[in-house]
Amino acid sequence: MILEREDVRLSYFVAGDGAPVTLLHGFTQAGRSWRELIAKMPPGWKWIVPDLRGHGETQVRHEAPCSMDACTQDLIELWDELGVERTHLVGYSMGGRLALHVAARRPERLLSVLTVGAHAGLDEDAREGRRRGDEALAARIEKDGLESFVNYWGSLPLFAGLERRGPSYVAQVRAERLQNHVAGLACSLRGMGAGAMRPVWEQLAQVTVPCTFVAGQLDHGYVASARRLASTAPNGRYEIVPRAGHAVHQERPDAFARVLASHLAMARAVGASASSSTLE
Question: Which domains does the chain have, with CATH numbers?
Fold first, then answer.
């Protein structure tokens, strides 16, 4: 399905019925990367799955921004289009950082937050170096083309855990990455890279919905981020998945489905308790 906005044609799909859960993919991915997980989840949830700016079948008009603020507005308008007042929000990596940005900017639209392999922004002394690195990567995509970049990106140690699922799965992930476009990925790096993102750690201290921050046991930097996030959000907790790296939901989908199901059940119970208290 397509949502037409002034500067973007936002591609998305909706699956299932029940309480809404919005899924945000990582860099070089698209909404389709969540289909395996959705198939493993229990019924009773309505999955809202967009292709973020710069990715998949979403089309951004020339010189329109690929930024956290622009993607946040896309989500608000998508939820309004679907009649969704509040939603559970789940994000992986870049999508996890976007989920935290949304939580900081528009907490009233959320029922809960779960992130995978994410942080809430780099400290200022690290941002400039990361910005330069992201710009160099964007220029590399534009110079060498999509296939060369996808080969490089897939070879990073960050994604080594995917190899445990075998060569056919690795080939599937690579094929999905190749369905993106040079201009889109370069735009995303420049506008939504970790260097471009303004940190939202302080704002998360005001986000009171249930939050779960997930990291793979082998993804050491993000284990530290998950713990820091859990200590920052008032109703935060962290979950470390054994024998998993950065892409927990793809490396160990059954284990991650259990984590997500537990989080959603917990968030639902908290919401029901809050509603009951309001009525008393």
Answer: 2-122+198-279 (3.40.50.1820)
